[in-house]
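Hi R.,

As promised on Friday, here is the backbone we talked about, encoded as C-alpha cells. Could you run it through your design pipeline when you get a chance and send me back a sequence?
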C-alpha cells in the first residue's frame, strides 16, 4: 500500500485548523501560520498615529482571496513597497491562503528560504502588512479630542503589497497582543 502524501494546500489547511503544528515542513518548505493584518484600532509608533482597519473589509472573503501569493519579506523596503530589487533581496516566501480568526486576518505562509526558516524557529517574530492606496483621499484622518495623535481610518487599498517579518509589528505591539508568527511546535 502506498502512503498518501498530502498536497501543500492540504498541509496549509491542516495547520489553519490546528490539526498540524505551526510551523510544519513539507517537501523542503516551511508552512507557518501568521497574522497578515489586524483590524480595529492600533498605534503606529513610526508615524506617531493611530490606525483603524475595518473588520468588515479586512476579514471579508474577497480581502482574504486577495492575499493568495502575497510576498512574505524580511523587513519592509525603505520605499515601503516591493520592486524587483527589493523582492530579490527580501522575499522568503508567499501566502498560500488567508482566513479570518477573531479580529485578525491570518494566513499560511510557505517559507522557502532556509535562513528565514531558522529565524522563525528560533525567534518570536511579528508581522507587518503593507498596502498601497490609489489616493490619499482613500483614507480619512481624524484629530482626536484628548490627544494630538491623529487617527487614520483606512479605506480599501488598491493593492496588498507584502507582509513583512519583523521584531514588532503594528498589530501585535500596538495592541499588546501575541506575536504575528504563530509557533505551536
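Update: got your reply. Pasting your designed sequence below so it's all in one thread:
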Amino acid at each position: 500500500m502506498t502512503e498518501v502524501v498530502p498536497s501543500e494546500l492540504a498541509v496549509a489547511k491542516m495547520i489553519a485548523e490546528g490539526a498540524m503544528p505551526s510551523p510544519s515542513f513539507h517537501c523542503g518548505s516551511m508552512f507557518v501560520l501568521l497574522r497578515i493584518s489586524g483590524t480595529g484600532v492600533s498605534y503606529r509608533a513610526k508615524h506617531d498615529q493611530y490606525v483603524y482597519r475595518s473588520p468588515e473589509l479586512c476579514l471579508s472573503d474577497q480581502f482574504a482571496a486577495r492575499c493568495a501569493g502575497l510576498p512574505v519579506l524580511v523587513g519592509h523596503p525603505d520605499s515601503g513597497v516591493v520592486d524587483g530589487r527589493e523582492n530579490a533581496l527580501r522575499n522568503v516566501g508567499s501566502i498560500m491562503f488567508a482566513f479570518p480568526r477573531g479580529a485578525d486576518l491570518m494566513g499560511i505562509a510557505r517559507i522557502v528560504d532556509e535562513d528565514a526558516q531558522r529565524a522563525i524557529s528560533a525567534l518570536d517574530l511579528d508581522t507587518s502588512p503593507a498596502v498601497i492606496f490609489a489616493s490619499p483621499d482613500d483614507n480619512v484622518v481624524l484629530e482626536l479630542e484628548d490627544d494630538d495623535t491623529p487617527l487614520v481610518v483606512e479605506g480599501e487599498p488598491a493593492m496588498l503589497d507584502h507582509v513583512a517579518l519583523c521584531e514588532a509589528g503594528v498589530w501585535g505591539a500596538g495592541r499588546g497582543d501575541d506575536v504575528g508568527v504563530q509557533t505551536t511546535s
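One thing I noticed while checking it: The mean pLDDT is 89.

Thanks again,
M.
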